């Protein structure tokens, strides 16, 4: 008799109280079935955010769904030195520097307030949605130790210095047992359109959530159709604060934090940050020229010569330090309908180029 295959993942919908006002947020979790306390597997927390809710955005979007499936099925690998795993001895870390390790993704696609079955209403400024996104990041990191071994066990969230809630609810508002989550060795923060605008303001999670001095986990940002040209509309004129937060992250300045009045933690960031911007040559809301002008100011990038000389509609450019890569695909508009495979192909190439393994 043939054996029944064991599912590699399970999906579960839970509701998390937003850090902003406790509005319950609908979160679709995709969790590996192999999680155990003794597993040597390294886990990556992935958060995916959707386009603007009042215009029909939700996690049922075509791009969000494509990204979710890609992270579920794509075998991602990095060099062991890129994992943020500090529980190894220095000699062991040194011996493993050139080895590659697979990353198992714990994925959360969520609905911002007012979208899907999430409670609340879309805010005017986007600040509430920023807290919604941070809520999901903090939840994924709730399985990670708050402090190094032997230190205080007080738990804070991933980057803002305030207590992180691990309470979980069902659709009726009844509190339920939370799913078992592993310790995360790195994060991938992604967003499509408005979701990318919000994601660009979220600081890399702390290595130990109650110990800012421990530094930040390696974090990758993925921005699909970043709406730089219409951010003023999406935030009703408050785009400046969003852009400043994004700039500090993309330029490797002090990581923004809500715990200090000046928006920074009191020491330079130790985060290893990389970002992938991908857009279409026919984007209706942010042209490639507008995107590159924004990146010049906020990420220290220069446009490729082909763009300046009216070259091919498809082009790519990487910042000299390799941390930020921008790709524009010919014949693609803002929405990626029937173009999802082009997106995923470019994403795969970028990841493999950034994380070559032997």
TrEMBL record:
Residues 147-167 are annotated as: Disordered. PANTHER family: AB HYDROLASE-1 DOMAIN-CONTAINING PROTEIN (PTHR42103:SF2), ALPHA/BETA-HYDROLASES SUPERFAMILY PROTEIN (PTHR42103). This is Uncharacterized protein.
């Amino acid at each position: 008799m043939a054996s029944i295959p064991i599912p590699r993942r399970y999906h579960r919908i839970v509701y998390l109280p937003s850090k902003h006002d406790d509005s319950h947020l609908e979160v679709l979790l995709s969790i590996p079935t192999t999680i155990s306390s003794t597993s040597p597997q390294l886990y990556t927390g992935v958060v995916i955010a959707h386009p603007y809710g009042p215009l029909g955005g939700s996690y049922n979007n075509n791009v969000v769904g494509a990204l979710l499936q890609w992270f579920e099925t794509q075998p991602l690998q990095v060099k062991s030195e890129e994992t943020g795993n500090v529980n190894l001895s220095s000699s062991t870390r040194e011996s493993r520097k050139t080895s590659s390790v697979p990353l198992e993704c714990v994925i959360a696609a969520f609905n911002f307030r007012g979208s899907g079955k999430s409670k609340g209403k879309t805010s005017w400024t986007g600040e509430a949605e920023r807290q919604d996104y941070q809520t999901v990041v903090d939840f994924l990191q709730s399985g990670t130790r708050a402090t190094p071994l032997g230190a205080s066990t007080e738990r804070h969230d991933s980057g803002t210095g305030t207590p992180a809630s691990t309470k979980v609810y069902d659709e009726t508002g009844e509190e339920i047992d939370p799913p078992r989550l592993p310790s995360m060795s790195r994060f991938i923060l992604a967003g499509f359109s408005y979701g990318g605008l919000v994601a660009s303001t979220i600081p890399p999670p702390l290595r130990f959530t109650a110990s800012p001095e421990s530094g930040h986990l390696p974090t990758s940002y993925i921005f699909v159709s970043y709406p730089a040209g219409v951010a003023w509309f999406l935030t009703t004129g408050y785009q400046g604060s969003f852009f400043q937060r994004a700039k500090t992250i993309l330029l490797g300045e002090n990581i923004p934090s809500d715990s200090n009045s000046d928006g920074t933690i009191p020491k330079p960031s130790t985060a290893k940050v990389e970002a992938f911007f991908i857009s279409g040559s026919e984007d209706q809301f942010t042209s490639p020229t507008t995107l590159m002008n924004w990146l010049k100011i906020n990420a220290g990038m220069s446009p490729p010569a082909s763009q300046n000389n009216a070259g091919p509609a498809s082009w790519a450019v990487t910042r000299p330090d390799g941390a930020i890569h921008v790709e524009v695909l010919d014949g693609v508009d803002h929405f990626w309908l029937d173009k999802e495979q082009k997106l995923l192909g470019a994403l795969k190439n970028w990841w493999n180029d950034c994380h070559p393994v032997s």
